[in-house]
Amino acid sequence: MKKLLKLFDTYSLKILVSFLLIFTVLYPKLPTFQVIHTWVYIRLEDLVILSTVIIWIIQLFRRKAKFPFALGLSIGSYWLVGLISVIFSIIFIGPALANYFPQIAILHFVRRIEYMVLFFVAFSTVRSMKDIRDYLIILSVSLIGIISYGVGQRYYIYLWEKFPQFFKSFPFCFPSFQTGNEEFAKGIPLCLPYGARITSTFGGHYDLAAYLVLIIPIILGVALSFKKYLSKILTFTLFIASVILLIFTASRISFAAYLVAVISTLILLRKKLFIIPILILSILLLMIFNESTARRFLSTIRLSSIVTNNQGQLIGEALPQDLRNKIFENKIIIQGPQPAQNLPVGSGYIGLPDQTLQVATSVAVIKKTLSAQEAKRLKLSAGSIHISTISGSFLIKQVLIYDISFTTRFQAEWPNAWKAFLRNPLLGSGYSTITLATDNDYFRALGETGILGLVSFLFIFLI
């Protein structure tokens, strides 16, 4: 019995951490228990994490696991600020907000603990370099599984269409189980078309991209640290494959974060000579494997012309001369507002200096893509083009326009976070008071937990 207990004390937490490194990334994001008032589900991985943490706490009380007090103090401070923010929000702020549910706020707080507590569990299992080596091997195996599944998602439909006779005996795809949509979060398997943003085994392409941004610098660092050429070649191949999968997610901000991460890694490892070659390789891979992402980078900010009326109200974006239909010759052709999130193209722009406004008294032809609701009301097919004309004096000005992704952030998501911050600058408005997507966790921390929350979060990295 003592021998079994000794084996349990020595290997139980390490086995559980190893299992989690594989299970949390490779197991499909299938729902287990639904959380009311949201489409977020408690999944099987949450239950495994809970079991692992309970065992770690038992081992901690038995003094069979160690605790990093310096980091524990910083992370504990962040949790304490979050707890105070939740309590303050439930008592004072939440009752005045629509669709605010205290239990959801508490679950958001618990989720932060769930994400971070695993650090302590893993830390307590590292006793020698052998443990780090074992975890790197497991991490690499998990990454190979993610890459293999992602490549299958990317090319299976393409190969099916090219070689139907060969694939007719395999009537399946590499399904994507996404969590960013109320219906998809129910566990509906999706076969992604060729060219779609790849999610691999994750709940969304941003989730996959975020994971890769964290893992790729580790793999690169390991590749450069090996002495044996075979080990270098294998890990560097894994690094390249990971970058290609990151490119398949078509996430511009994640690719930019990856560049910052690998440059920082190379500087810390004193391998500055590799910075330029790695940057060139990354850009070449981007251009070879996903031209659409490269084009999205180029179209992030573009030169165009916007049209306003005499009152300065934005009407839309003037189409270039070569795109105007000859039927509407000598008229201003305007691309009207897009249906997505009610944010029109051209509503987010940067004015250029020394650009004289051109006054045109004319007829403006507005071409507007109808939303599904508008098309149904007008008894037209979804995506139909609606054309209308208006007369008057119009002002045309050349500006730099940023695309719909940045417009959404600048005009909707980040202002919402700032508004939440202003309600209570010290502690924020509390968890769950900002929309599901913020696309900036620092803004989210500021809006939900205020200055104290953001500072305590950054303090973790400082320590």
Walk me through the structure.
Helices cover 56% and strands 13% of the residues. It has 463 residues and is α+β, with helices and mostly antiparallel strands. Strands 3-4-5-7-8 form a five-stranded mixed beta barrel. Strands 1-2 form a two-stranded antiparallel ribbon. α7 runs antiparallel to α8 (229-248), α8 (229-248) packs across α10 (275-289) and α13 (404-423) crosses α14 (441-462). The protein is globular and about 90 Å long.
Major beta sheet summary: 5 strands, mixed, barrel
**Poorly predicted sequence stretches spanning 5 or more consecutive residues:** 322-330, 337-346
Coarse morphology:
globular
Number of helices: 14
Descriptive labels:
463 residues; five-stranded mixed barrel; two-stranded antiparallel ribbon; 14 helices; 8 strands; 56% helix; 13% strand
TL;DR?
The protein is of the alpha+beta class and 463 residues long. It has helices spanning 2-26, 44-61, 69-93, 102-123, 129-162, 164-167, 205-225, 229-248, 252-268, 275-289, 291-298, 372-377, 404-423, 441-462, and strands at residues 31-34, 41-43, 301-309, 314-318, 332-335, 349-351, 358-369, 385-402.
How is this fold's topology laid out?
Elements: H1 2-26, E1 31-34, E2 41-43, H2 44-61, H3 69-93, H4 102-123, H5 129-162, H6 164-167, H7 205-225, H8 229-248, H9 252-268, H10 275-289, H11 291-298, E3 301-309, E4 314-318, E5 332-335, E6 349-351, E7 358-369, H12 372-377, E8 385-402, H13 404-423, H14 441-462
Parallel strand pairs: 5-7
Antiparallel strand pairs: 1-2, 3-4, 3-8, 4-5, 6-8, 7-8
